[in-house]
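Reopening this one. Same input as before:
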Amino acid sequence: MKDGNQAGILLSQPAWKEPMHGNLSALLADTLLVLLGLFGVAQCTVSAFSIPVKPIFLSICIALFAFLFLAIFSLKRWRMPILLILSAAYCVTAYLLRTYFLQGFVISTNQVLSTISDNSRFDLPQFRVNLPVGEYTNACSVFLAFVLFFLACYVCWAVRRHSFWLALLGTAPFLLVPLGFTITPAWPSVLMLLGFWATLLLSRLCANSSFGRTAAAGRVALLVLPAVALCLIAMSILMPQDTYTRPASIESLRQELEGGIYRSSLFSQQNGALGRVSLDSAGNRQYTGQTVLRVHNPSKTPLYLHAFSGSVYTGVSWESLPDSTYAELENSLYFNPQNMAGQLLSFYSLPEEQSLLMEIQVENVAANRNCIYAPYGLASRPEELSGTAFVHDAYIRVTSPFGISDYTLQAWDIPHFPRAVNLNLISEPFYSAEAAYRSFANTYYTQLPQNLREKLQWYCTQVGIPDAETAGQEAVIYAIANLVRTSGEYTLSPGTTPEGRDFVDYFLFENQKGYCVHFASAAVALLRSQGIPARYAEGYAVTAMDYDEEGWADIPDQHAHAWAEVYTPGLGWQPLEVTPGVRLSTGELNQQAQDALSEDSSTPESEAESSSEPESSSPESSSALEDSSALGSDETTGAIPFDFRTLQHVLAGIGVAGGAVLLVVLRRIFLIKRRKKRFHSANVNQSAIAIYKYLTDLTSFGASIDPYSEELALKAKFSQHTLTEEEMNALLSDADRAAHETYRTLPAVRKLFFKYGKCLL
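Same output, byte for byte:
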């Protein structure tokens, strides 16, 4: 025998290899878990927010996505290329179905916001949908299918890794968000999610078993899943859902968190919405003196800058009329009701009266940017105000999601119009349109809850309010305005209305303390009880004393105000001031609002000086409209039906940004996996050279290479000997140490570049 040339069989180190049935059991367990989690999330979301979908279509999509991604994540090669191809197919499909995708997003968002609004104190916006109602189900089904595609990818990845925390992070929000607003999803969906989490957690405990992570976890999951299901079913039988009561401490904490968010800047007036005024939140008020609007009016006339009109009184809020209410009316009008006075005076005024047409510029500094603050007598028509929409007869909203900060409006100075309006001299089209709207106002703007109407009618009889049919509407308006002014004490600290009590009833007959919201609401209710069309309105007041020499007025936050509106034939809705201690023509504002900058409330010094005559809105005494305004604080809240078309560019930008982030993440995953593969290739010396090249890349970020690692790299490059396992472990350890130590020393921006640009960690 020759020494040194001895041939033989080389055996590798013994290693445990998982049997085929172990892999199959793991795959079966993972499939059941993924289906459980995805069906739980889908049903939880749909049932909690009442999103219209096609259940069979979504079920097929969930099953298809689950099997597809489980198969992909079971592959040892080609994962990244396949995922990139699927991402491209996703983008192409989303583009082809963009109408359903975008409108489904809008409808689903509206359902979520509406449900949260109904179960909290938040008045969240609603977006305009550009699809027939019959297509809502199809659109929502398509949108949720696109969402579930990404969610299925994430859940399959987390389950294949048997990572309980990753799976919980991706699925828990779908249950916690509705529960946070006391919205309970369908109970089976809750059980499915609980079973998904419990099974994954228990199976993960055996992930590091000596029998092999995947096989052991799979076998445990198959055993645990039926046990968890039986436990949950037994719990549901022994403790039914309807017997559960949230602990008082948890409910108190939830309400405190909700209240803190509600009072934060996220829901401040600057970012508020329109469409509803919540009266149950009309408690104590405070002001900062901050300028919220700048107004330029060369005429320097007092102004009501109207933001919103409430049409439906519920006892706890002022709401807008449903859109369906206006369907028949709008067929009878050739102009928007908010332009009625402007439409009339445009052809009724004489040449010498054209000077009464004012041009008013408004700069929104810190007020609600979702609405236009418009003066009465508005001449600017909808087509002349780009980026806005006239919402029936109630208000003007901004269609841009970012609001409008500067705009110019034309309006007639109605209080100084020298002649009374004679409708008999008006052209037939306008006369017919005005008559149609007057009938509409008499129908809808005299409505009240029946019990409140009866009580207010009795009250008016007791205090001597004349009958409108015999004394005329003007006399009734005059009497009610005086009655309301003397019905309570003006204060910015009236407290809140007790739960379950009617706002107007509590103010008039018990508390008798309040500010403009209270007085205006009471006046509108009393006028309606006498059959006089009236509405609640709010916005900002501009007094004659607010203007400087150039006609500019800085309007502070304490000029926020509420007032009543009465319908005047031919001129439309006109303001009626009923808050004590207020007269805009002389610059008198209730002194308490000025004092509110330093304290909550005090007795109003100017209350005795308030006007003794009501500010009538009839054309026969139009000069009486001159004195109108007040202050107080009214946060206009509610839900604007935003036009979603203006958000499409924003959504496109978000989609592009999200796609870019996804590509960056996928690129990083791909490069890291490729580097690890090179570090553990069959050619040991080539792996050592790859590790050394990685170390040299780290030096550009300030890392240092251990001399021993350099020696090993030279040996791998030029020696005929193969590095030993100990030498390779030393190289790998040095690379890992250098990478982490270098990363910790980098500033934040360089860390991002290190991790996602160079993908070195």
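So the earlier flakiness isn't reproducible anymore. For the record, The CA atoms of residues 183 and 663 lie 36 Å apart.
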